[in-house]
Amino acid sequence: MLIKDIITALEDLAPLNYAEDFDNVGLLTGSAEWEATGALVTLDTLEEVVDEAIEKNCNLIVSFHPIIFSGLKRLNGSNYVERAVLKALKNDVAIYAIHTALDNHFKGVNNMICEQLNLINRRILIPQKSTIKKLITFVPRANAGKVREALFSAGAGSIGNYDHCSFNLEGNGSFRGNEDSNPVIGEKGKTHFEEEVQIGMTFPKHLEGKVLKALFESHPYEEVAYEVTTLENRNQHIGMGMIGELEEEASETAFLERVKKIFGTGCIRHSALLQKPIKKVAVLGGSGSFAIDKAANAGADIYLTADLKYHDFYKAEQRLVLADIGHYESEQYTKNLLSSYLKKNFANFAVVLSNTDTNPIKYF
User: Fold this and answer.
1) pTM of the model
2) What's the half-sphere exposure (Cβ side, CA atoms, 13 Å) at 68?
3) pLDDT > 70: percent of the chain
4) What is the DSSP letter of 65?
5) Spatial distance between the Cα atoms of 41 and 25, rounded to a whole number of angstroms
6) Could you tell me the keywords of this UniProt record (predicted)?
7) Domains of the chain
8) Phi and psi at residue 30, in whole multiples of 5°?
9) Three-class SS of residue 228?
10) Using only C-alpha atoms, what is the Rg of the chain?
11) Tens digit of pLDDT for each residue in 252-264?
């Protein structure tokens, strides 16, 4: 098996199209054409993690965070990033980072937090824009069924809990081929009118290449008329953060005690308690100060995230409780998600969950 086979599976789980623009996801070192000896799954790729991969005969590290985030101007081992990258390069260890592609997945990072808290009625806190596209094409009536089925098989026509969704409008199409044409229907040089079906269906943007390939292969015409547009609709299954509800409301202190125990954090920094019960909970793994207003506007009683600064806590403004549970702590279950997924898809391949503690923050 090649490393690219594992990458394909990872990108089936979390397509890189949905990663944030600022991020650096994908294969960071090594070659996708290398034969894979094993995959080590980690939250961060440090030098110690590369050592662990070498020791366990894993030439692929599947990392949540990208070790290369901003541009590297030199590689001389002067800092922890360069040392990890150099060691990986010297020992032919490939590093693949998935980061915000998984952050934005409905079953990704934030869903794992909700799982630990047993939240119900979950939904995306900040749905991502421009992720849904629409295809319009025109097909001879006799071939419409074949083309529709090909597009459905490619993943088009799925909306929420429904699939095989399309809109079909019958009408007359016209065309005239020039002397270099080879029309399937009609004669070159003569205007032809054909009973056609206008087929319209939506599809997720990461499937555009696959959907268009299915269209071209199934369509009978020499020249296929079609249009693809990007919709403004929010994608309710892709985006940052998540909000859900406790099955039974809890007091603020009882809930915070529970969170502290589940995530094993040394302390929870929080805004002023409001002396109100907790029912609706918003979460965003990692740095989430940018979503404070979104959580408040969604009606959350408490917002769990990390990396809140001094002035961020003022933004609570008696609307909700802000709780900083730690960056590592909020994302720690992500590597279990990735490990389980890879083991399920590659049952006879060595997938190793890293036991290196990469949390840089300690509590006294």
Assistant:
1) 0.90
2) 21
3) 100
4) S
5) 15
6) Metal-binding
7) 3-99+333-353 (3.40.1390.30), 109-128+238-330 (3.40.1390.30), 132-233 (3.30.70.120)
8) 85, -175
9) strand
10) 25
11) 999 999 999 999 9
